[in-house]
Amino acid sequence: MGASSSKPIKTAANAAARRQYPKSPSSSTTGPSGNPPADRAGRAAARQEQPGPVFHSKQNPSAIKSEENKTAIDLDARDPHFAASLRSIGPVTPNPFNQQQPQRNHQKSLSTVFPPSTTSPKSRNPSLLVFSSRAELEKLAAREFESIGRQSHTGREFLDVVSIRHILAMRDKQGMSEEIIEKKLRLKKGAVALLGRKGVVGLVR
């Protein structure tokens, strides 16, 4: 019992005797608790690379651009090859069709090509034109009907279907002349001729 219990004590004593401890303290334990030297060098480099204060120019960007354009033009003017090519081209004649003419001349040319219409906007519509013409003819027919029997009446010009059939029968079947038909029916001179010549307009059998 006593021998078996003393074996672990001897083993622990032998392990402690074999353990080696450092004879001098290391630099990592004796140094300050700050950052390592590598971090210090990186911070120093970052301070050197950090840009200083930026001073903005009070000059207008457009003025700077114009100065750059002038510089480019001066460089082109000093180029002998560019100057020689310009001399070889010679003076350029402008395109007469691409010139910007004044607005007044442009409107004048358009008015000569496309003259302004004398008709009203209503007359451009065919339906409105038909209605307006029909209304005008109705007024003329009513005025002619009111003047029948007066001395100023020169004869009828507006005819109904019955009168037209009667005129065509007198002309085609009876062979009467236009003057006789107009006198008999008290028609206006030239009213029979407006119906159309014989062979074009006639009675339907």
From TrEMBL:
Residues 65-81 have a biased composition (Basic and acidic residues). Residues 22-47, 95-104 have a biased composition (Low complexity). Residues 1-126 are annotated as: Disordered. Residues 108-126 have a biased composition (Polar residues). It comes from the Eukaryota. Residues 158-202 form the Helix-turn-helix domain. This is Helix-turn-helix domain-containing protein.
